[in-house]
What we know:
Blueprint: H1 2-24, H2 28-46, H3 62-85, H4 88-97, H5 100-109, H6 117-133, H7 148-170, H8 174-196, H9 200-206, H10 209-239, H11 244-265, H12 273-289
Helix pairs in contact: 1-10, 1-11, 2-8, 2-9, 2-10, 3-4, 3-7, 3-8, 4-7, 5-7, 5-11, 6-11, 6-12, 8-10, 10-11, 11-12
Amino acid sequence: MVLLLLSILSSTAIFVVFKLSERLRVRVLPIITINYTVATLLGFFLANKKEFAHNPLYSNWLLIGIIIGVFYIIMFFLLARSTKTAGITPTTIAAKMSVIFPIALSIAIEPNDTLTPIKLSGFFLAIFALVLATYRSDKNSGKEQKLWLPILIFFGMGLTDSLVKYAQSVYITDDLNALFAATVFATSAIIGYTVILFKPEDRIKLLQPRTILVGAILGVANFGSAYFFIAMLNHSTRFHFLDNSTLIGTNNVGIVLVSTLIGLFVFNEKYSWINKVGIAISILAIYTLTMN
Length: 292
């Protein structure tokens, strides 16, 4: 339960940092790149030193780690672009509803993970709650929305989370957790720096103290999000705490719930009655998902 809470809080912190970055007027690409650099360093620092006795370049998880790293930073860019062109609502809904992919994979590959009627109802409640909690009325209904980006995000994030789940199930033990995360983030960082080379304005902002500070905080939160998520699943598998599919669903709904509360009480964001109904259903969904 502690690992689940840490996973939710660290993931929520990512959204909080992005929210603060708007007010601090820092550019997104530099802080994303610094974030991956810090996350990489944390991963190597916390990695089990025994793992360095074997060359990571020959590890059986290296390829999938690199693939996940590529997907990580691509999804960041797609999220930013989709929010600008298609709007926050379809982007957020697409991102959160993608949780059904890793949940389905967990049920398919985990021998102790079964689909019960109660759990199935919890999944539907979770998706319904996520839609309501992130709903925003579009006053400018005449504006054409480019829906292909949210659709791409839906499948892209679903695939990315499924790859993480598969890697955790097949390759990643607790000893390998930090090193695997470092490999993923290092891949994303390399891609980020490569892109910055071709963007002069981002190169200038990269070394500004404010950018470094925000990027570093984001990196700690980002690393914690991945590290605690995998540790949570490993712990659950070893001690039969909860089914992995239940944990994944609870984790995502919890992130939405905590983020919504922070937005309401910290950033004074306004929510419609539909959003409030979604928050209430989120609590019910969490309770339902934890029932076996």
